[in-house]
TrEMBL record:
Residue stretches in coiled coil: none
Residue ranges occupied by any Expansin-like EG45 domain in the UniProt entry: 39-143
Annotated compartments: Secreted
Biological processes, Gene Ontology terms: anatomical structure morphogenesis
Cellular component GO terms, alphabetical: extracellular region; plant-type cell wall; plasmodesma
Signal peptide, first to last residue: 1-18
Name this polypeptide is given: Expansin-like A2
Domain of life: Eukaryota
Keyword Hydrolase: no
Species assigned in the record: Escallonia herrerae
Amino acid sequence: MAFFLCFLFFATISSAAACDRCVHQTKVAYFSSASALSSGACGYGTSAISFNGGHLAAAIPSLYKDGAGCGACFQMRCKNKTLCSREGTIVMATDLNKNNQTDFVVSSRAFMAMANKGMSKDILKLGIVDVEYKRVPCDYKNKNLAVRVEESSQKPHYLAIKFLYQGGQTEIVGVDVAQVGSSNWNFMSRNHGAVWDTSRVPAGALQFRLVVTAGYDGKWYWAKNVLPTDWKVGLTYDSGVQITDIAQEGCSSCDDGSWK
């Protein structure tokens, strides 16, 4: 029903008033080990290594957004035309970058992917490069949003979950949980990164509703029947919904077509 998939606050933004293809300039360094990113602030754990082909990134606080930016995808390319391709690569944010010299620290695999064929070792020798980047939609090939029950959960008194395969160009900013068939919703809190929790766990099978924003736009997503009555710690469950919204980002300097 439309009520359950309604807009929370949906402003129609014209292309003249907002820019969804803003290009930013920064420097990017790399971690020699992807495990440093998989154990990062977003809480994805070792499963992060399998995300996005291992092209992972730690993002500065303004992009990390207190965890709301976890799972965001960015296309970046280095500006050294001798070493680097025009396509660059796409990275996924899995950690918080506290280095104030760069907007991102990426996995070595992502760093090398920016190079022209046969020049991956040459770009690694630089250690840090000038890049331009923009946020892009995450594409999980029509895979539904998934909910993983974290090991810290203690049934029936405490539930911690993590969202995986969040598509589009969006951020989850609110989560409620209720027993399937009930309208008695309890809010969940962001524990850290992509992990949400509550100590008010409804009995029985569980449904979720999410407040999802895309730039200026926001709406509810309703996942009707996600966790079974006998939900298990460590298992991942299909939400039955896909998030594909594209963000509208207001900015002073936008892609003028040079990123081609």
